Structures are given as structure tokens and as C-alpha cells.
Amino acid sequence: MNLFSRHLPSVGSAVLLSFCMGLQSPAQAPSASKIETISVNTKAPTTPFPHFWEQTFGSGRAILSLRQDYREDLRTVKQATDFKSVRFHGIFMDDVGLYDPDRKPIKFAQMTNAEAAPEASDAGIYNFSYIDHIYDGLLANGVRPFVELSFMPKKMASDPNALHAFWYKQNVSPPKDYKLWDDMITAFAQHLVDRYGIDEVAQWDFEVWNEPNIDFWGGNPKQPTYFELYDHTARAIKKVNSRLRVGGPSTAQAAWVAAFLDHCKQNNIPVDFVSTHVYGNDTAKNVLGTDENIPRDRMVCRAVKMVHNEITASPYPKIPLIMSEYNASYANEPDVTDSIYMGPWLATTISQCDGLTQSMSYWSFSDVFEEQGVVRTPFYGGFGLLAEDDIPKPALNAFAMLHHLGDRRIKLDSDSALATRSADGSIAVALWNYAAPYGTGAAYTPPPATAAPSKTFILKLEGAASTAPIEIWRLDADHGNVLKTYDAMGRPAFPSRDQIAKLREAGKPSPPEASSLKNGSLTIAIPPQGLVLVKLGGKATD
């Protein structure tokens, strides 16, 4: 990840609003409101809508996956999203212990001549113990590794002092000898195939390095030296088994994709997928090379569309695109990643990116995370869906709500609604009221009452029974928002155990509300930064 670097309603509308379901409390409701009518033909043709936004999640570096709280958070997010794989940095870092050329061979004093030689029982310079614990732990929870091949073992580094600014000071230099790197990659991949079987490991993705276009790569010049690293790595992996999937360039700010694919084609280098990253607060100058002022809720998919078009025009027009990091912010902004803002931001990002990418990996699923050091307070703008001490954030509730969306999309003419149908005929409609973050980024700022207008949706479900039962999920300042309780506590830096229990309870998603349509429609008000999910059972559309 790249941290450094309205109009008033008419009298008639006012009467209507007084009967709307779930109007926000008067203390929070601004005086103005917008009204939008959404018509959904429940029998309309659909397009495929795979849940590309929840297939993979990022997380802190590899060794953290051995912690109990990491695995508890993993299980929580798995239950909410049924995600398939997790990506993290640093599987080759010294704290995992894979590579040590000075490691002494194990001597077996009781070994007889009839038994195997010691060398046959000893991995020598490679130690897979923690790697096995890491990957076994993921697989035991129904999650596969998305294998980021990084960083450089210090005893293999061309510059042992090329340490990144992150708290754990990973080495970012190229290897001092590519034969050492090739041998390690081969041994690593072969061990995985031997332990888990090729049918399993062939379903993993192997991504070469992390963000080599910025300060995570010390090669100079950056692009050609990274291409050299990629070439060696891809060939070593394919040497173990051609079914193993390898890709890159894993760049920040959606960079290098066209050049990378041209390089692979011209030099006959294996490549199975493209991966790159983008964040909502990346600048247009850095991502698109323009002077536009692109809003946070548009930047990610502008970048995704750019890369999608670059791939279409490349020698590999059908190659999968994996956005292996995305989020609304690459910085620690509590009013963004800790807040209800993430509900409408996520919904609008999903709506825009549909059809442009095979997978997007949200950075990250948990605040078990140490890039800036040991976590010092639960809500500091961390990237995770859960704060420290397994406390759910609004972002987790947003993912859980949007998981209810079906796998076929119904076309709508709206930038604030998304309608889907499932195989059982059920209809799910997401509605949201996007409003920009309220604070400055330095600390969470509760939304002022007049920050943005509420929005009323008149949702018409054509083809549904006139009074069909529905379920309604909400995420807003008063639903699924742990920060409301944390603020009431006075925002303690180190909550007591009793406070942690209360925060965990407050962070849970609000239970769905049972309701019904009236003449085939629903009128519902959504406050600023609110997200609603409406679900209609399949039998109600028969």
C-alpha cells in the first residue's frame, strides 16, 4: 500500500416525508431533502454481476497472520462476505524465517546407516515452518493465499541497508545474485505444491513484489530492474509447474500496465494476470496524468477503466485484471475509513467498476496491522473492516449488507442505486446518499446537522406483488455505527475491557427490518452518508 507518498421540498412532498419509513431523527435531519424515484423491472433482462469486490482482502504483513486476533477477524469477515483469498506483504521477510544461508544442518545423533542421510531430512538454508503455519491457518478457515512475493531476505539483499520507512523496516533492494533468488522461488513454489498439491496451489495467484514504482523497490532505474525481477520470478515459478499462476506489476497508482504487458510479450515472459493498485485520494496527476480534480468516489473506477482499456489494447486483451489494493484512502483518515462514509463510497465504487475487473482486493480486512507501528488507539483511520480488539467498523457492515446483492444486475438509470436478481428470483436493491467526508482527515468529525441534505427514494418494484414482504438493512449515523458509542465514551485511547465489550456490541450491524410494499412501492428516507439494502423474496415476484 502507498501510505507516504437541493432544493426545499414542496408542501406535498413535506406531507409525504412525514410518513416515510425510517426518517432520521430531527436532531440530525437537515431541513432540505432530495427526492429520487427508482423503478426496477423485476423481470427485466440482466447482466452477470459476480461479487468482484469481495473475492480478496488485503491484510498486514505475513507474520501477523499467526496472531489469534488476526484469525478471529479473518473468520468474522469470511462469515460476512465469504471471501476467497487474502493478500499480505512479507512472506520472505526474516521474521518468517524462510531463508538463511548460514543456518547449520541438523545433525541426527541416533541415525543408523540404514536410515536416510541427514541432508535428506533437513531443508538446509530454507525453513518452511512458519510458512506452513501461515498458509495452514488460512486454509483451515476456508481462505486461500493470494501470494505476494516480497520482500528481500536481508542476507540475499544487494543492499542490506535498503530499508523501507515502515515500522518493520523491510528490505526493498534487488537480490545480490539472481541465482539465489531463483533457487529460493523454486524451492518455495515446489514446497507449496508438495505440501498442498498442484490442484490446490494452481488456484492461488502469485504476484511479484509490491508497488515497485514507488519506494517499495530499490532497483535503479525502477522499471527495468523490476522487469528483471519479474522475469526471473515468473520463469522460476513456471519451471515448478506450468499451471501455477503468476502476474504483476503490482504497481501503485495504476502504473506501468501497458509497458509491463509489452515487455512480457516481446520477451516471451509468462504472465497470467495483471495486478495494480489505486486509492480514492490518489491524484489525477499521479494516476491519469491529467490536472483534473476527481472526487474520491470516482477516482478508483476511473483508474480501473483506464487499466481495463490499456489491457484491451495490449497483446493480451483478455488477460484478467486484479486490483490487488483499493480503498477510499491510502492515509489514516478517521472520517473516511472508520466512518459510515464507507457505505455509500463502497456502493458507488462497486456500481461503477462492474464489468471492468475480475477482482478487487480491499485494503484491508483488519486493523491487526503495523505499518506505522503498534496500534495506539482503536479508531485512528486504519484501513481494516475491524478495529483493534475485534471491534466492527461501519465498513464491515457495508460489506455485509452488499453481500446480499444477487449475481445478476438489472440496469438502472441512477448513480445512487444498484438492483440485482438472484437465481431464486429474489431482488436486492442498494440505495445510498453519498456525501463527502466531513472532517479534515486528522481526526474523526461527527457530521453536522446541515452538512448535506437527506435523500428520499421512491422505490417502485414492477412485477412484484402489491403488498409483498420485504427486508430492509440500514447503515447510517444511528445504525451499525460504532463511532456513535465511542464518541459518547469520550473516545478513550485505551478502552477498558467493559468498554471494548460495549463497542463490539455497538458495532454490530443493525438487524433487518421487516416491512412490506404499498401498491408495489416503498418510500424511504436516507440521511447523508447512509446506505440501505432492500430485499424482496423470490416468491414475491412470481
Automatic annotation (TrEMBL):
<keyword id="KW-0732">Signal</keyword>
<dbReference type="InterPro" id="IPR017853">
    <property type="entry name" value="GH"/>
</dbReference>
<keyword id="KW-0326">Glycosidase</keyword>
<dbReference type="InterPro" id="IPR049166">
    <property type="entry name" value="GH39_cat"/>
</dbReference>
<comment type="similarity">
    <text>Belongs to the glycosyl hydrolase 39 family.</text>
</comment>
<feature type="active site" description="Proton donor">
    <location>
        <position position="211"/>
    </location>
</feature>
<dbReference type="InterPro" id="IPR051923">
    <property type="entry name" value="Glycosyl_Hydrolase_39"/>
</dbReference>
<dbReference type="InterPro" id="IPR049165">
    <property type="entry name" value="GH39_as"/>
</dbReference>
<protein>
    <submittedName>
        <fullName>Glycosyl hydrolase family 39</fullName>
    </submittedName>
</protein>
<dbReference type="InterPro" id="IPR000514">
    <property type="entry name" value="Glyco_hydro_39"/>
</dbReference>
<dbReference type="Pfam" id="PF01229">
    <property type="entry name" value="Glyco_hydro_39"/>
</dbReference>
<feature type="domain" description="Glycosyl hydrolases family 39 N-terminal catalytic">
    <location>
        <begin position="38"/>
        <end position="511"/>
    </location>
</feature>
<keyword id="KW-0378">Hydrolase</keyword>
<dbReference type="GO" id="GO:0005975">
    <property type="term" value="P:carbohydrate metabolic process"/>
</dbReference>
<feature type="signal peptide">
    <location>
        <begin position="1"/>
        <end position="29"/>
    </location>
</feature>
<dbReference type="GO" id="GO:0004553">
    <property type="term" value="F:hydrolase activity, hydrolyzing O-glycosyl compounds"/>
</dbReference>
